[in-house]
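YM 10:42: J domain-containing protein sequence, as discussed on the call
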Amino acid sequence: MVEHKGSTSLFAIFALSLYSLFLFPYTIYRISCGGSEETVVQPYLQGKQKKGGVSRVLRKLFNKGNLVLIALWLLWALLLWYVSITSKDLKPFDPFEILKIEPGATTAEIKKAYRSLSLQYHPDKNPDPRAHAYFAEYITKAYQALTDEVSRGNYEKYGHPDGPQAMDVGVALPTWLFTKDSKVAPLMLLGLVFCGILAPLGVASWYMLRSNRYTGPNGVMQDTMSLYYASKYNVKESQSLVRIPETLVFCMEFLTLPTPGEQGAGLEELRRVVLRNNPDLKDKKAFWVKRHPSVLKAHMLLLAHLDREHDSVPASLKADLNFVLTKTPLLLDEMIKIAVLPRPPLGHGWMTPAVAIVEMMQCVAQALSIS
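YM 10:58: structure's back
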């Protein structure tokens, strides 16, 4: 007779295995290439002193990503402890291990071990119900399996002193799912199928589709590289420093930067800040009208950084400023690769834009206006 039932211990092992398949690669990613969550370019701190080295190290060590990783490993350790507790029920019946004797022990050694364990687990010596159950189910049967001829024969043939047992097929699902009055079992099964199969497949598909959008060690979008190679604002042979920013901000990273209506007041305030330091932009319609709103926002934030107006940037745009400053060095690195790319017929790169891009890197790093 085959009895189908759930097995909480098997389910714990199954859950730990799935969780490990996620946690181990994620940990390797965090250690090898996760990097720090701090921005690549730090805003210019005028009149402010930098915090001590110990504070910076602690802030870098205990950032949000590392704290999440620590929490995930604590959960893994908890699962491992639970598996070690519940997996005891999965061990096969071994009378030598139960009586704590070596295989091939003599009858005298078997009886001595039985008497020693009886002093600890016999109901007359130990009132604990769990000790009584362990004594009846394990110690007594182990002793019979090694001393009684019938029990020993059953153990040698069937692995248990009571003879052949009903085949127990344990499913790696919690036991309570198989109770007759369980009404949430179907929902739990659907949830397990979704979390264990469909969700991982969806995440893997999303990651593969997303990873195809980026290229190179800097993780720049492939569409950005196309724009830098061949578009109205591409890198040009005679491009000077003053023309570098308009190429820099014309990228998919900034084109796809959300610009919700709630930022309208902040953008107007940012516009006044930019015009205060760059009055020559007031009458340039090509700067204000003919470009995508997200590109215009990124350009104004870049100018605010170069003019050291970080404190004047509205609070609603601070996150966008950090994003622009994070992506700018990576984009400039890709631009200089395009500038120095060997071109026929002589196989030389372009000196003028290469020098201009290097100067732009210096301006961004030191928060200096290109003028």
